[in-house]
């Protein structure tokens, strides 16, 4: 069925939505500039295993996910294929690797273009969030299956947030212009889940630079809903995040007894 002729989730009877097929697209083509010099971030080790493999396992851990599309660094697709072959992954899950683009947005679009037609729900998950628990993945899939065109996992903020004007000159202080009500703010994580046709339309329509996929769906005027995220689904962005990720992984391994 083409994207145009596929009924919207709200139009589908419940039993049809229960029979949807879900694929996860993992953008992993970034350099990781904020993490510092080294290999592309997704290929750097966490607990002795590339961060990307943790992210792939996190998606494949959900019984709802039957295909994982990895969007590799543009010149790293062969290396990523070898990595997937070298690590134990669930046999019930299929894997595809495609080369990525200059921006996260472009990489996601390239991943979407590689999706076979039978997948009608798409998760987009940062390789840089290697420790997302499977319950969070399942909660996102369930909410899309229940009819939401776009679903984001998110957590409340611990810090108060200020909106500022840019500094008048480098080194000058930044004037505060507003303090949004913290209770209504959320820090958004991945995987973000979508009705496929909606996400494809968003990527075809929105040309602004955005920092997540759900904001493209917002720009289409469609509903985006939040489900509870998890503190362990944080993004490895700066060096201290890697220290925290190592600690979380070590605690998990201790609790699991290996
Ligand atoms: N051209 C790009 C840029 C980013 N990403 C992916 O998008 C996710 C979130 O991006 P971010 O954490 O910003 O990663 P980087 O772009 O690698 O980080 P930095 O901005 O520090 O370079 C990561 O899994 C990253 O690999 C991608 O697939 N293609
Ligand atoms: C998609 C995302 O992880 C949601 O919080 C985030 O916006 C990615 O931002 P980045 O600057 O590309 O890391």
From TrEMBL:
Residues of the site described as Transition state stabilizer: 34, 41
Record InterPro entries: IspD, IspD/TarI, IspD/TarI_cytidylyltransf_bact, ISPD_synthase_CS, Nucleotide-diphossugar_trans
Record's keyword terms, sorted: Isoprene biosynthesis, Nucleotidyltransferase, Transferase
One MF annotation (Gene Ontology) recorded for this entry: nucleotidyltransferase activity
Top EC class of this enzyme: transferase
Highest taxon listed in the record's lineage: Bacteria
Pathway the protein contributes to: Isoprenoid biosynthesis; isopentenyl diphosphate biosynthesis via DXP pathway; isopentenyl diphosphate from 1-deoxy-D-xylulose 5-phosphate: step 2/6
One Pfam family from the record: IspD
Assigned EC number: 2.7.7.60
Positions bearing the site annotation: Positions MEP for the nucleophilic attack: 182, 235
Reactions catalysed, as given in the entry: 2-C-methyl-D-erythritol 4-phosphate + CTP + H(+) = 4-CDP-2-C-methyl-D-erythritol + diphosphate
Functional summary from the UniProt entry: Catalyzes the formation of 4-diphosphocytidyl-2-C-methyl-D-erythritol from CTP and 2-C-methyl-D-erythritol 4-phosphate (MEP).
Family: Belongs to the IspD/TarI cytidylyltransferase family. IspD subfamily.
HAMAP family xrefs: IspD (MF_00108)
The protein's name: 2-C-methyl-D-erythritol 4-phosphate cytidylyltransferase
Organism per entry: Streptomyces hyderabadensis
Record gene name: ispD
């Amino acid at each position: 069925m083409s994207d145009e002729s596929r009924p919207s989730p709200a139009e589908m009877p419940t039993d049809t939505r229960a029979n949807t097929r879900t694929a996860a697209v993992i953008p992993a083509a970034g350099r990781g500039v904020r993490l510092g010099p080294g290999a592309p971030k997704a290929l750097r080790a966490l607990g002795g295993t590339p961060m990307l493999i943790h992210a792939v396992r996190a998606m494949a851990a959900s019984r709802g996910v039957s295909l994982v599309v990895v969007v590799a660094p543009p010149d790293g697709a062969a290396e990523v294929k070898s990595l997937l072959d070298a690590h134990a992954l669930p046999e019930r899950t299929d894997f595809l690797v495609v080369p990525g683009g200059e921006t996260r947005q472009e990489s996601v679009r390239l991943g979407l273009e590689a999706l076979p037609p039978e997948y009608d729900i798409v998760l987009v998950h940062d390789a840089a969030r290697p420790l997302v628990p499977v319950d969070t993945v399942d909660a996102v899939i369930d909410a899309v299956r229940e009819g939401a065109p776009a679903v984001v996992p998110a957590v409340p903020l611990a810090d108060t947030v200020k909106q500022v004007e840019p500094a008048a000159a480098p080194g000058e202080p930044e004037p505060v212009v507003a303090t949004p009500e913290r209770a209504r703010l959320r820090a958004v994580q991945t995987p973000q889940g979508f009705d496929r046709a909606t996400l494809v339309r968003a990527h075809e329509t929105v040309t602004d630079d955005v920092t997540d996929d759900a904001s493209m769906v917002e720009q289409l005027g469609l509903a985006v809903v939040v489900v509870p995220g998890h503190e362990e689904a944080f993004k490895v962005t700066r060096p201290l995040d890697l220290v925290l990720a190592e600690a979380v992984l070590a605690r998990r391994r201790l609790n699991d007894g290996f």
